[in-house]
Amino acid sequence: MTVAICARRISHQIGATLVFSHLFFFCAPTNANLIDWLRLKGGIANGLEMAEFEGMGYGLRCSSRLETGAQALFVPSSVIFSGGNGNTIARAHGQIQPLSDADAIAFNLLLEQAKGPKSVWALYMSMLPPAVLTPKLFGQPALSALHEPQVARRAARAHDLAAATLVRVSPSLRRAVRAGCALASASDMNICIEAHTSMASWAWALSIVNSRALIFKGVRFLVPIADLVNHRTHIGAWMREVEHGNFFLKHHVLSTSGLHTSSDRNFAPGYQFFEDYGDNPTHIYVEHHGFVPEEENPFDCAPVKLPSLNHDGNGRANSRIDVLTAVGVHRMPSKCMPGELNRVRQDVRILIWALSINTTQLEACPATLSDGAASSQCEYAFPLPSLHERVIAPALLNEATGGLAAFKTTLKKDEMALVDPLLAHDLRLSICFRKSRKRVLMRLASEAAAAIICETSNNNPHDKNDDRVAHAPFVELKKTVMLGPLTKRVADFNAWTSSRNWPVLHVKAAILSSHGGRIGAVATKSLNQGEVYVDVPETDCLTTSAARREIGTAVRSLDDFHAILIFLVKCVVALIGSDGNVNTTNNQFGPYLALLPGIDEIVSLTLGITLGQDHHSAQSPPLLWANLPTKAATFARDRLEGSALVIALPAYVASTQRTYNAILQRINRRALGAAIRHSDVALSWPVFRWAAQILDSRSIWWNGQRHLVPMLDLVNAADAFEIPPGTSVHRTSTAVRDRKRFAITSAAWQFDQGEQVLENYGQPNHILYLYHGFALSANDHDCVRLDFKMTMAHDSDALDSETPESAAVKRRLLTFGFGALDYTTCVTSGSPHLGRLLEFISIKHGVSHKIHHSHSGAYLALLEEVDHRIYIYDLNTRGTVGHAKTLIYNELDHLRKLRSELTYLLGYNAFLPLGR
Fold this sequence. Notes:
- By secondary structure, this protein is an alpha+beta fold.
- It has 31 helices and 26 strands.
- A hairpin with a 3-residue loop joins strand 2 (48-53) and strand 3.
- Helix 11 (314-326) packs parallel to helix 13 (359-370).
């Protein structure tokens, strides 16, 4: 199994010792013949075909829809490589000592490779990679770039162990390979034998086993076809605990007849078939599979340096060991820490507590704990919430910040290095890996700092001398934490929604890593398609009517959008009590507001705290990239070169700024000051811009008005492959009961309990990116935005004059129904808007918009525009990362398809030979 998200596939030339590869990579499998081979052997591949994917190598693609739990593959035991079969073959060729599963399967692989086309597995062998890029093959620069010497040491030990094993197995392996070469009628037996018994060939075979074999109850099996399935984290992974592979085993059942694989999610036709490899930290994927997952790994961890037991004397160390033993901790916990406090193992918490207790407690605890009850001499209370969090969180913060400080590079430098298209593959993988380590430590530091600040403000809000967050400035925190850690906010929000007694509530907020955010909505029960999952009273939403009722005269002169914007700001600043303490209970919507992105910065700004945070990150919504349209234009050119958003984005910022300036002139400041505390902050540009972005990205519409709807606006957008056929775009309906209006939303398709509930947003990527800050990799509603402006000669303002020529152009525009001198559309191949676009272009260029013999001017003009757009796309732009890259790649794909369609139409209709 190989998913090279950060490491691309490598060529036969990696490592001079791999010259043997040309001997047995004798043919390239087609999409069909390997699947046909499986079926010929009695296997099953339901709606799956083999395909090659950029950056991933071979994988499986869905040719028909697959539902969760449906059988995807069956591989009969007759074609599965196992340690048992490998040992049987090795013994038959004189191997006396039994081999490990990995060594036995490697032995078997090399024998089959030596057989060449005569091997039963010849087709399967032909698609195996010539090398698996893991740290064992890294050059010294890449090993150093990992910033983890232990990984290099493990790679060296593995190499030494493989070399020692080869010495032991070489006689029997040579006999087996000789027989295989003879069966293949090798032209030169010596070359054939050496090629399949060298250290390079042995290392290759082991790398195939280590990267592709499945493990069931500690036993390895190399399963052809099943090992083609690439990894992608399941959307429900953040909701499940570490289950030691149970999730993977639920969908992979090994029996005496073979391996049965079922789909762990829904798949639409045409999309790659993925599976979740299980509860593995990222270093497992790097060291064995040669990839770093693209998305954050819920089960990832990063090593920290926990204090030693004898940090204050060997005598006390013995006492601490007694305490740890008394509570069931019999060995040192793993030093690999997760990024979330709620995932930190209990034995780590207990160890930190045991390291912190004083002499009195050290003496009292063993006896107290043996009695099974805590006492005043031995404070002991686990699990969380724990009275020891005041000790545990600072210790974890200290270790996380220390781990970050130990890296030789910053996260920003890593991201800049990865932009280089000529970066060596092993270096790319190293940098991706250390980035994943940093992200874990950053999350851990952020949550630990949040817990400290929350606990400090709750227990001693007036203590200004607490130094437990002394290390916090060294952490690259994404936000401040005045409102508590994210886990607490989510819990408070769920408690709040439950307390509101909504008629229907079958979802809850949850921390996730998918679909553009850390928070989403998951089903609390199984949901059928069309079943109502949330029924929210309008009184629990932020609405225009509530804004005008609450603020009154101050917003009378404002339109609905800006009235609700001011109401949102009013609710946010209300979280700050008269004593300066921040509490979500200070406002009806407090628990909901605490989940809004950027809320901490707005609260901090209101309190006069300057965070000094940089929103210029490409991961932020575009409206927040820059204060000025000119600066936004610079960022847009860097990140979106070629896209129409290069112009549209700064125009969006400029439009928002113009509206803001107009609001300052129209709003009743005196009335606003009476209605809102901190009204000066409420009218500041940063606060206004943030609130505008919240409304643009989260509003839900009904009856022609926008609303902010708690819980419902947490429902994320689904990729096309997650949407079953026949489902509709998101729609919220309303009902009136007892003269109260309710917003009702039904499940667009079926969801299991605990699964993230998703919706079909029904918007193209340029809309999603401009207003929401994300783009979908698979979007059935996507198209490429094209902006055209009517100009004459070289003067863009020429049409504003009243010349006969400009008047004629304007009349023609009106004749075709165009009311402006510019035209924006979104098209792709086969788009129904293409005809309308050609009409505008025909007026712009003064040509016919219909193809008839030689009258193909509009088509040629549009083709020229499309070619120009394709040419100016800069896919190697330094700032183009993440969702921006998804947007750009998809737009480029649409343009290429549109070019093909236009070229075909021109060739078929306009350039037919006129003579017969």
